[in-house]
Design brief:
The protein is mainly α and 128 residues long. The chain is built from five helices and two strands; from the N terminus they run ββααααα. Strand 1 and strand 2 form a beta hairpin.
Length: 128
């Protein structure tokens, strides 16, 4: 970690950044797989064309609700992927791990748990 004259760290070391990058890439790959599975589930026709005439209105409603829930989950997963990709960009441009509210280094434990975060817990809770 780079430090200032007050010995407070201002940047993570290359080794730390490599560790964060590995965590992010693992989460990114998993999220992309999840999104692919969700998209496949959304587009799948469960009943086929022949079975459609025998399906009740209740089943149609349940299918519509399930499809809506899958769409919401897919949208959330797409946002998560975008957040992880932006975190990788911050690693490359040297701003990763710095709280956007306080300018201080976000604790490593928080970044390992939520690698796409841009806020320390204190800033997120409003106790800057």
């Amino acid at each position: 970690m780079e430090t200032t004259h007050t010995n407070e760290p201002t940047r993570y070391s290359a080794e730390d950044l490599a560790e964060f990058e590995a965590v992010i890439l693992t989460k990114l790959n998993k999220a992309r797989q999840d999104l692919s599975h969700l998209k496949s589930s959304i587009s799948r026709d469960v009943y086929g064309e022949e079975g459609r005439s025998n399906v009740s209105t209740f089943d149609d409603g349940a299918d519509a609700l399930e499809k809506e829930e899958l769409n919401q989950l897919a949208a959330r997963t797409q946002r998560f992927i975008a957040d992880l990709e932006r975190a990788l960009f911050r690693i490359k441009n040297g701003t990763y791990g710095i709280c956007i509210d306080t300018g201080k280094l976000i604790p490593k434990a928080r970044l390992l748990a939520v690698p796409h975060t841009q806020q320390s817990i204190e800033a997120k809770m409003g106790r800057k």
